[in-house]
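Re: beginner question about structure tokens

> Can someone show what the tokenized structure looks like for a real chain? I only ever see the sequence side.

Sure, here's an example I had lying around. Input first:
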Amino acid sequence: MKYKFISDSHIHSENSFDGNDSAIMMCERAAGLGLYSVTITDHCECNEYYGNEENIDYRKAIENSIKDTSKARAMYMDRVNVYTGIELGQPYQNIKAAEEVLSLADYDFVLGSLHNLRDERDFYFLEYTPQNAPILLDRYFSELKELAAMNCFDSLAHLTYPMRYISAYPDITANINYFKNELDDVLSILAENDKALEVNTSGLRQKIGKTLPDEDVIKRFKELGGKYVTIGSDAHRWGDVGSGIEEGLQILLKCGFTHFTVYEKREPKLLPIL
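And the corresponding structure tokens:
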């Protein structure tokens, strides 16, 4: 491999409501690929923590994720570094839930995510029109600033997440470029608070065809003083572990980054890209 420290810091096991495979299978794939590290970041949607229509018990799921990650770490300790993580969805919508979840373990890594706006379903489920897409994006950036200002996470996951789905509508011209000032606000908050920006490679295997966020946004984060970047495949099945990571590292180099970051005990660990 061209890169020595290939790491995947965003994967989901079967302990996520939309995950398919066990932590052991995910780590076996990572070890087989020769990855330096892998972080299991199963979902916890804070706004749904105390009750949801799907009857998902997020506390139990996270407790199982922590146990399974510990077992996988012991099994693969000589082949790949396995870190305990969590993807904390919408923590600003239920701070009490976020605090409870974060007390369940000594996590290595916490992703902060925004999957759905207040009183809305996940962007995945929404129907988009030329009229509502700009409004939803405006609301997205407004709430994203709330999330970015919190100090409960280490890296902001898949910035530009709604575009993963809006891009599937060819008649909608709304795009992130219409929100440059709002985007700068979010990136500046991250930089000022020494938080990381995630390069999420899932878009490379989806219709949008690029990372979330894309190269222009990553470059802008560097211009605004951003120091830390993490990279993750957002894999929900074993076959996608490590997918797009090398392409993501190449983008980071183009954007002027010489290192990327993995987190251990919530502390950033800078690793050289080359």
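Each token stands for a local structural state, so reading them left to right follows the chain. The first strand starts at residue 7 and ends at 11.
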